[in-house]
């Protein structure tokens, strides 16, 4: 495992948004990771962005025990889409603690703003939306998602509408096509991810 330092800083929390669907589609991978030159995840390796705008990224090797732990979380979500979203939120809390020692993000704060932008131990929403999408893609690659597909991160607020920019990971419910925000920027270290309908998330100031 190692830390790769990039030479650019992305100011604000703006991400690309579009209508592609499942994580297996190349457009999801390209939109989520290519812009920041982040290697897409596999069931064996994920790159965790931190320090704002994916300026820093830590390579995390996922072990068989890690994959078994993720499977254990998602067992609780088999019964329904709502149960699966709850299981994903819990898996996200575990994943946050799992990667923190390597990424140096233990005890990161919720909603880290501009005063933290030079702090390598914190996340902006570009970091968190990419990290959460990585987790969701790993779950998908392990065939642990029964009720959802992984979509591209979406954004709200572009300053021109008076709202600060923010980005989130997204799941699509297979049975209904409904999109759900899966947001880890709004929660602190080791807390369950915040999941809500994407249209409600987009309406928040």
Textual characterization of the structure:
The protein is α+β, with helices and mostly antiparallel strands and 205 residues long. The chain has one domain (3-11, 18-203). It has five helices and seven strands. Mean pLDDT is 88; it is low at 1-12 and 14-23.
Helical percentage: 25-40%
The percent range for strand residues is 15-25%
Q: Tell me the span between the first and last alpha carbons.
A: 38 Å
- How would a crystallographer describe the biggest sheet? 4 strands, antiparallel
Order of helices and strands: EHEEHHHEEEEH
Mean pLDDT: 88
The class by helix and strand makeup works out as alpha+beta
Number of strands: 7
Low-confidence stretches: 1-12, 14-23
Count of DSSP H/I helices: 5
Quaternary form: single chain
Shape: globular
Whole-number radius of gyration? 15 Å
Q: How many domains in all? A: 1
Short key terms for the protein model shown above:
four-stranded antiparallel sheet; three-stranded antiparallel sheet; 205 residues; alpha+beta
